[in-house]
Amino acid sequence: MRRGVAVWVGSAIVLGGVVVSGALAGRELTEEDLRAEMARNRTMAAYVARNGVPDIAESHFLSDRPPWDDHEVRLYYLDARKEIAFARAFILGRPDIQVIRNERPLTDEELAALAQRTRLRRGSGLGPAERAEDAARRAEAAAGRVESAADSAEHAADRAEAMAGKMESAFQRALRK
Prior knowledge:
By secondary structure, the chain is α+β, with helices and mostly antiparallel strands. It has two domains: about 25-125, no CATH class; about 125-175. Helix content is about 60%, strand content about 25%. It has five helices and five strands. α2 (about 30-40) packs across α3 (about 40-50). It is flat, with a radius of gyration of 26 Å. The chain starts with a helix and ends with a helix.
């Protein structure tokens, strides 16, 4: 009888450990899952719009106390050797605050493991030429955003210069009086 109880208790402990380790390991997000998370988290959506789609996206369980949501989304950019985690926090019962919870560089071991996962996931369909074209598209989009920001700054400088000219002429007129 005792042996049976011990076996059941041991099995329950092992099963509980497997469930907890599965929850802590996180799960990889598909493109559709990532789009859904970006719809909920504006900060993450803006980051992905600026920096491009990550190589890997995962959802990880958060055991933090409130006000944090029950999970965070980690994005991995292998070329930049970066992991960045986004989460939502509740205020007045609504998840209105979206923040970057953590940003850190990837170690060589982590980078190798993540690179292996992307190779397994992508298969042989994405060769060096396709990756280069994708990187070129992202660079062109980034250059367009920089050019737009430069145009905006130039327009603001023109307006400031015109305002300074008006102020100077008004000052000169006031001195003549």
